[in-house]
Design brief:
heterodimer; A: 342 residues; 14 helices; 2 strands; 73% helix; B: 384 residues; alpha+beta; three-stranded antiparallel sheet; 13 helices
């Protein structure tokens, strides 16, 4: 029961955070002076295209761009009615992309799942790489294994990941024959799901996952190593070794379990950085996620598209953080519910 | 140690009633704190090495123009995408000092790339302390002297040239000016906000604490880069390079403070219960004075160490923003702006030297990481 109450509490705070975040995002998006449509109208007027002006004026009233900012916000969220039936985010109407002249939902719709997929793959990659490497580095601390993992870890933290992406693409193509760019071979685009398509997606995912995950792996590996080293110095480890427990069994059975908790908590801190990473990587690698859309939308002041992508990205991290918090409570009963500060 | 007849043990050392009981056990601990920290830091070899490296990197910033043979936006139309040139010393087995071979370029219309032919018969010695294009030493002393430059009729592109025929080496050393300082300005901003808000939250508690805490939680849960992107997209496009540079570094700092504020806050929560704080308060010290004079100096060094560790994130952030075209803009030279040229696979494959600015980035970021680690480890000289 305690857990359910805590979960409900977490859900509530997440929703409140989301409200604040939406205000923040809306404010940032509207920082640049003017908007896409008034710029367009001015341009059309200057070149004397009257029918374009009429359409732009219509869009302007439809999405309330001529209204005060607070009303625009309420309209965007869906709390205030629009002139011609624009119903807002809460009712599933994501607005209109002025630059592409399409509803936002048509542009991002299919990409949302791919965005989640790419990030999920990176999280899994981080777990699968960081756990063994961190344990190994701690168990063999101050040997060459430790130094090599530390060195690779530091390099992973220090290399700008967009460059890593380009380099891995090039050498992956040259020596292993990995595909370049996109998330699947062109012939599978729009095809129904088949084994060959899944294979194609998987091979395309290798480099992006690796690149997005490296920094995370490095950070987590270092933390796990430090936690493990703390645990390994404790008397119970000595007792276990003295009683003749095999090293691998001893490591995984006791210290790893204790060192593991901060690991789960960490995913909440890691997720924002990873989502950031996936945005920039998607631009470099032309992955069909929402990253490239965000960049063009920001550059062209395409406000509904940009605002939605930012909202979605923030939503993704908030949900991830919440899940990691809940997992942590399940995993470690010592953590007091609702009192995780200080 | 000897044993008495009744089986008790006794220390053989002679008893001295006048022993100085205030003498410390370890003579090496008898030094001011900063000296102890320095002694410990000296043993952290990577940290020390990084500190020296960073010191030189920053010390050379004012002399960027002097050590680079070209100015950053000087174009050489006949040498587009010129590969890196070696500086040789021996010509046909004979030592003639540092020299370069002249090259002539021709477009290869089949593969659409530039090919350069090196004329190995004519060694051309480099000139030293020569007069070439004018620049401003340290930003305000106009001069024409360069440490070394190309002899007439030849070029010296140590790291090659880019798509407009600009020298990559010169651009890297000019780019250091912006790329290295962006982190410093950013960290100053983040330091000011983080300490102020964290100190207020920790010291006053109550609703101030609540508000600051929620702000920290919200900012920490947001992905940084998209927000950076959105904020930099709001920078008007008609601003000059200098104002863009400042606003970008402030943007980088604006989202970085939550970690610092959280550390300050938790420290303040425990420190404000200490007796000396109570004493200061009773003597009528205002909160501002208690915070600045009595609380902050306690862990300033720790804050500096953690700041060192967050500078790299800002340097990488600037690189990423400029790389995506939303950071610093063209006439300004930074490592991120340079990498913008290396954005596609073609340049990695055909002109790999355009990606050389990656090296200084990796080096500087690593150095800051090692330095921060070293500082953190050595700040508590009494441990072990």
């Amino acid at each position: 029961m305690m857990f359910l109450r805590y979960a409900a509490y977490r859900l509530l705070t997440m929703c409140l955070t989301l409200v604040v975040v939406s205000i923040l995002i809306f404010a940032i998006i509207n920082l640049p002076p003017g908007d896409y449509l008034s710029n367009q109208i001015a341009e059309l007027r200057a070149t004397g295209q009257a029918e374009g002006v009429a359409k732009a004026e219509f869009l302007r009233t439809e999405f309330g761009l001529d209204r005060p900012l607070w009303y625009q916000y309420l309209m965007w969220v869906g709390l205030a009615p629009g002139e011609y039936g624009f119903s807002g985010l809460l009712q599933g109407d994501l607005g209109w992309s002025f630059f592409n002249d399409e509803p936002v939902i048509d542009i991002v719709g299919s990409k949302l799942w791919l965005t989640v997929l790419v990030n999920l793959a990176a999280v899994l990659f981080i777990y699968f790489m960081a756990i063994p490497l961190g344990v190994l580095a701690a168990a063999k601390s101050k040997t060459w294994i430790d130094y090599i993992t530390a060195f690779i870890g530091y390099l992973g933290l220090a290399t700008p990941n967009f460059l890593l992406a380009l380099i891995l693409f090039y050498y992956g193509r040259k020596y292993i024959g990995l595909p370049i760019g996109g998330l699947m071979d062109p012939q599978f685009e729009g095809e129904p799901l088949s084994w060959a398509k899944i294979q194609s997606v998987l091979t395309h995912m290798i480099v992006p996952t690796f690149v997005i995950g490296t920094a995370g792996v490095a950070a987590m590996m270092q933390r796990l190593r430090a936690n493990m080293l703390d645990e390994l110095g404790k008397p119970y480890v000595e007792t276990a070794t003295a009683k003749g427990l095999a090293p691998s069994r001893m490591l995984t059975k006791y210290p790893l379990r204790v060192a593991f908790n901060p690991f789960v908590a960490d995913i909440g801190n890691l997720l924002p950085a990873m989502v950031s990473g996936s945005v920039i990587i998607s631009v470099v690698m032309s992955l069909p996620t929402i990253g490239p859309d965000l960049l063009t939308a920001l550059k062209t002041q395409d406000q509904f598209l940009a605002a939605f992508v930012l909202m979605f990205v923030a939503f993704l991290t908030l949900v991830g953080t919440m899940i990691s918090d809940l997992l942590l409570v399940l995993l470690d009963p010592r953590i007091r519910y609702g009192a995780r500060e200080g | 140690m000897s044993t008495l007849p009744d089986g008790r043990y006794i220390d053989d050392a002679p008893y001295d009633p006048n022993v100085d009981i205030s003498a410390i056990d370890r003579a090496d601990m008898d030094a001011p704190n900063w000296l102890l920290v320095w002694r410990k830091f000296r043993k952290h070899r990577l940290g020390l090495l990084s500190a020296i490296f960073l010191f030189f990197a920053y010390a050379f910033i004012p002399f960027a123009g002097f050590i680079s043979p070209y100015t950053p936006n000087e174009r050489s139309a006949e040498h587009l995408f010129h590969p890196p040139q070696a500086i040789n010393f021996w010509h046909e087995g004979e030592f003639i000092g540092p020299f370069v071979y002249p090259t002539t370029g021709a477009p290869d219309l089949e593969n659409f790339q530039w090919v350069y032919e090196t004329d190995r018969s004519r060694p051309m010695p480099l000139q030293f302390f020569c007069r070439k294009t004018e620049y401003y030493l340290a930003g305000f002393i106009p001069t024409e002297r360069h440490l070394f430059c190309a002899p007439d009729g030849a070029t010296v592109f140590i790291f090659g040239s880019d798509r407009l025929g600009r020298d990559v080496f010169s651009r890297i050393s000019y780019g250091a000016q912006l790329s290295l300082t962006v982190g410093l300005i950013g960290i100053t901003v983040s330091f000011l906000i983080g300490i102020t808000l964290g100190a207020m939250a920790g010291y006053f508690g109550g609703w101030v604490d609540w508000v600051v805490n929620r702000a920290i939680e919200i900012l920490r849960s947001l992905p940084e880069l998209p927000l950076w992107l959105a904020l930099s997209a709001a920078v008007p496009s008609n601003w000059g390079p200098v104002s863009v540079f400042f606003i970008i570094s402030i943007i980088l700092g604006l989202l970085d403070w939550p970690g610092l504020a959280r550390a300050v806050r938790s420290k303040f929560l425990s420190l404000r219960e200490e007796e000396y704080v109570k004493a200061a308060e009773m003597m009528g010290a205002k909160p501002g004075r208690v915070i600045r004079r009595h609380l902050l100096p306690n862990f300033m060094s720790h804050l500096i160490a953690s700041a060192t560790l967050s500078i790299p994130a800002m340097i990488l952030g600037e690189t990423a923003l400029s790389f995506l075209g939303l950071g610093l803009r063209a006439p300004a030279v930074s490592w991120g702006v340079m990498l913008n040229d290396a954005q596609n696979l073609a340049s990695i494959e055909i002109y790999p030297w355009t990606a050389i600015p990656m090296l200084p980035i990796v080096l500087v970021v690593l150095a800051f990481n090692f330095l921060g680690d070293g500082l953190r480890d050595s700040l508590d000289p009494y441990s072990d």
